[in-house]
Amino acid sequence: MNAQDSRRWQLLAIVVVIGYLTYLLAPVLMPFVLAGMLAYLGDPLADRLEKLGLGRTLAVTIVFVVILLLTVGALLLLIPLISRQVDNLIQNLPSYGAWIRDTAVPWVQAKLRLDPHTFDTGRVMDAVKEHIGSIGSVIGKLSRSGVGVLMWMTNLVLIPVVAFYLLRDWDRLVAWIDAMLPRSIEPTVAHLARESDKVLGAFVRGQLLVMLALGIFYGAGLALVGLSVGPLIGMIAGLLSFVPYLGFIIGFGAAVIAVLVQYGDWTHLLLVCGVFVIGQLLEGYVLVPKLVGDKIGLHPVAVIFAVLAGGYLFGFLGVLLALPAASVILVLLRYLTERYRMSGLYTDTGPDDPVIAEVDVTVSIDDGAAPADTSAPPGRSDGSPPPAS
């Protein structure tokens, strides 16, 4: 084994070890990942303040205070609203269950000519109540557990502390990582890091703005229609919009059920449809092109697969990091594709395959006359005799 192959195996071993450690430590990485995301979002603003003559610590302090005030203000504004909406939803759950049992299920049975006992609503409601009860017992045990409360409080305090230090030392960390890279791969890694930063910047900042704008639009639109739980449905639809069509499907389905239970007429149903149609047009033609752009280029199927795979491998942390990781992987795949197109494996034509023979195919139209025999005799296209069998 030569020196180059040895270096490649060493790099592969390092990547495998880092990936395995990340998989093992996934349960405790959540506060650090959230802190890293906050530091990544705040670093450009801190750099701009530095260019104005402020020191790094002062610039980071200003950015950190602004982010903290925005977060606290959003929580103070949203928590009472969400609490009222959840209370309203819980009060209306019996009405939703009665509508499904007395209206929706008989209509489906009549249209599909199903047996009346196909949908046992009583059994379904008993199962839902049982699962809700079990979830409540689990939440109650967790809330009474001192360890659970301690971990929750530790993460709550740890996230802003880690975010502040990461934001303060962000440039140092980047420089240290660059200095620790093997010199043979440093130019390539630096190029891929710059490309990944462009993609991540477009995705993280743009997609957060898209989610916020859609949540506000759907919530305000459904509230104007008159839905009592409209703001809650709008916020959920906006938060889930990072997965293509998931926020639209869940939000539209929940809004349709809510408007049929609350009003039961065509006017309000059409108004709800209009809100979601305008929301989709706004997302597809205004928000995503202006805020996200086409730098990511992830196919909707790839987005759905990334979210499902991330959730299966790393739980909520995987769902949180699925699309940023998929964006970086897309940059790597583009680089590998270019390397492949420049390699001899792709560019070398190779000798002609003697087994492949060209066959002329003639398609004639039956018009009553005998078709002319224009098929070429078997053999090569240059007139040489066919190879001996």
Structural notes for this entry:
The structure is a single chain. By secondary structure, the chain is mainly alpha-helical. It is 77% helix and 0% strand. The protein has 13 helices and no strands. It has helices at residues 3-24, 30-51, 56-112, 121-144, 146-168, 170-180, 186-225, 230-239, 246-262, 266-292, 300-314, 316-342, 344-347. Helix 2 crosses helix 3 (56-112) and helix 7 (186-225) crosses helix 12. The chain is globular. The two termini are 45 Å apart.
End-to-end CA span:
45 Å
Number of strands: 0
SSE arrangement, N to C = HHHHHHHHHHHHH
Helix content: over 70%
Report the principal-axis shape: globular
Biggest beta sheet summary: none
Write the layout of secondary structure elements.
Elements: H1 3-24, H2 30-51, H3 56-112, H4 121-144, H5 146-168, H6 170-180, H7 186-225, H8 230-239, H9 246-262, H10 266-292, H11 300-314, H12 316-342, H13 344-347
Features:
77% helix, 13 helices, single chain, mainly alpha, 389 residues, 0% strand
Structure in a nutshell:
This protein is mainly α. It is built from 13 helices and no strands.
